[in-house]
Amino acid sequence: MKAQPSHLRLIHKTTGLALLLALLALLCSCATGKTPAGVEDLPKAQYWNAPEILELTRHAKEHRSDALIIVKDGQLVYRGGQVTQKINTHSVRKSIIAVLYGMAIEKGLLKRDDTLEALGYDDKETPLTPVEKQATITDLLKSRSGIYIGASGQNWERPARHSSKPGQVFFYNNWGFNALGEILQRKAGMPLGEILVEWLAKPLGMQHFTAADVDWDGIKGSSVQQYIIYMSADDLTRFALLVANDGVYRGHRLVSASWIREMREMTDMHSSPETDPKKLFGGGFYNGYGYLWWTRYSNGRRRICADGWGGQFIIIDPETHLVLINRRNTGTNLLAQGWFLWRGVETDRGYVYQLFDKVDQWLEAKDAGVGGLP
């Protein structure tokens, strides 16, 4: 969630020339030109760009939001900023993988109780022990693998190796997240980028994502590589709507409702500050973690959240079907990420969640015939 990948630590050491190249790459990615309509093809809500909505969102840029999209019941409420830029999703990639795993299980490619041993999966540089090999797909999805090996994209302290067994303890662990990407590729028999295109991008009508928008990064001491997904706010919105609508997009079911509901509704039952250290949940900011999704209670309501470094957010209210996508342009390629580290800071997470709550309250009030801003 707040990781600084290993390749970013290396970028810190780049010369002035590399930073200049990064700036040029970023400027090129923002160049104007003919681009697909994106989610403009979604119907506009009754309150599309209403004065109150514009008032609620007018400080977004000040809080370092580079792209913001709000959708209610599949209809656009607000859309602004760099919505077509294919930005690094950072840890939102994990929430995307969770949906792909639901689809893979339904296709019969693997089972949730498959162990790493049964799958023939190992870390070639730091081999797993017989106990570690008993970690299941479910353990990895819940981030309870008990495998504490150095991982690409993780620069925070890990528990001591062998300090817990698979399934025992929650720890936000990139080794397991990264392994899920490699395992899925092997079982599907195609690169992750192609899986995303065939299983999600095409069925959802994504207009920017291509198979080439998945990159890989490694770290010394582990053969397990980190997958990096670049995706526009527009395309990420289509994905979020799939999750908000129980696995259905525009009348077509892509993943079972039971998987989506278990993935997003049972997060508190998998891991929570009640069962695991509070500091592991953003210092208590989140209330639970399930299959690679966070949950948060606010204003008496339950929000389902994907949270990525820099300011990449998907927030969903399953009850009102309100969806918010926030992006911070941390880079459309690795060099541009070096420029981001040099120039700026993350989106204000508190602002994004407060904005979501206020929009949710205002829309509910309007539907109930009550005016005024929250």
Description:
The model is unreliable at 1-33 (pLDDT under 50). This protein has 13 helices and twelve strands. It has helices at residues 6-11, 16-29, 51-57, 92-106, 116-119, 137-141, 174-188, 192-204, 233-244, 257-265, 267-270, 334-343, 349-367; strands at 67-72, 75-81, 87-88, 214-219, 222-231, 248-249, 252-253, 288-289, 294-298, 301-308, 312-317, 322-327. Helix 2 crosses helix 12 (334-343) and helix 4 packs parallel to helix 7. The chain has a seven-stranded antiparallel beta sheet, with helices on both faces. It has 374 residues and is of the alpha+beta class. It has a single domain, classed as 3-Layer(aba) Sandwich (Beta-lactamase), CATH 3.40.710.10. The longest helix has 19 residues, at 349-367.
Briefly, what is this?
By secondary structure, the protein is α+β, with helices and mostly antiparallel strands. The chain has helices at 6-11, 16-29, 51-57, 92-106, 116-119, 137-141, 174-188, 192-204, 233-244, 257-265, 267-270, 334-343, 349-367, and strands at residues 67-72, 75-81, 87-88, 214-219, 222-231, 248-249, 252-253, 288-289, 294-298, 301-308, 312-317, 322-327.
Name a few traits of the molecule.
374 residues; alpha+beta; Beta-lactamase; seven-stranded antiparallel β-sheet; three-stranded antiparallel β-sheet; 13 helices; 17% strand; disordered N terminus
Q: Helices, strands, pairings?
A:
Elements: H1 6-11, H2 16-29, H3 51-57, E1 67-72, E2 75-81, E3 87-88, H4 92-106, H5 116-119, H6 137-141, H7 174-188, H8 192-204, E4 214-219, E5 222-231, H9 233-244, E6 248-249, E7 252-253, H10 257-265, H11 267-270, E8 288-289, E9 294-298, E10 301-308, E11 312-317, E12 322-327, H12 334-343, H13 349-367
Antiparallel strand pairs: 1-2, 1-12, 3-5, 4-5, 6-7, 8-9, 9-10, 10-11, 11-12
Helix pairs in contact: 2-12, 4-7
